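**Backbone description:**
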Amino acid sequence: MKKNFKFSKAFLPCAILSLAIIIAGVVGLFVRGVNFSIDFVPGLIEEIRVAPAAAEITYTGSSTINVELDSTSLSLVITGAGVDNETRTFSFGQNPTVSDMVNALNTVSGVSAKLIGSGSVDSYGIFVNSMVTSRLSTAPYRLYVPFGDSISVDDVREAVSALDVSVKEMGTDANRSFQIRAKVNKDDETSSQDLQSNILSALQSKFGADNVPVIRQDFVGSQWSSSLLTSSIWMAIGTIFLIWLYAAIRFKPALAFGAVVALLHDCLVMFAFITWFQLEFSTTTLAAILTIFGYSINATVVILDRLRFNIKNMESKNFIDILNKSLNDTLGRSIITTVTTLFAAISLWVFTTGSIRTFAIVLTIGLISGCYSSIFISSGFIALVRRNWNPDKERKGKARPRVAEPSV
């Protein structure tokens, strides 16, 4: 026989627990603040690698030659007046070592490639400095290879310890890189060039002037970051309003407010964890929060649909009994849906890094909170606003036909 749980007995304790978590989040907001990513605060973010130059390329001809690098090959794009425009592609498969690649590049007229480091290094590891123009000239254009695992994130942090920056390790072993983030105050905003110069100078003084290639760089100004933050807040508010409008049309306004309360609860709980554990709040994190909005309202709508059905078809005049019956009817669906979705979220949490891992952490917290709020917070709010429910008034004048049960 299926056991019916008295969920209503847990409404008040769960409301107190949620209130405590939300208050802790508010305290955390003032004590620790929000760890905004470069998406929302002005500043510089750089990804660098510490590696030696493997080869140098120079060009003395009259054409224009640009270097293009992808995961499988290195190409020279040759253009200019009086020459046949062409692209010379040198695949890593046909030139498996750096020495082979240097020899192949020397077959191009006017191009001079010189080996600097070990020629036996795998050419698949070649990368370039994104901050250096890819157009070849008499000035050396350097190709880099991984330095191995001898440089740790602690070494990089020590190099930039005098600067107000944060350093995060990305990748492992041969693919290791370091993400350096520098924030600036709105009242004393430094240009991206100055920030980059200070960071690179500190790194080059420790690791060598030619051994710190920049993989990528982004800079966000205060006006853009503030605009993005404001737009994100309005987007979240607009999403909640549209969800309330949908629930109000499909159900009664009181039930719709119960769904919105659950959404606001999930948002505040996620922010409590984000602030206390200093998870980076980026556009990826915002995507996780909006994803939870959709998941949470879906779980709540299933419960509300069953509640609407039971109000019409149960003989009980006690609203709490009808609500408990509705929650028991949908309990299996709520748990199974949450657990199966958690499998994917936890897998991303365990096996990924960077912003995707943060996305997975926030998603995991939101999934648990969404299931919990749909059962206890939304239902508790509905029970509160329907405490004086009059079944005769609601059912007055309505026929009681036999209705098929909604699927859960």
Summary: The radius of gyration is 30 Å. Residues 319-351 form the longest helix (33 residues). The longest strand covers residues 53-59. Residues 399-403 have pLDDT under 50 and may be disordered.
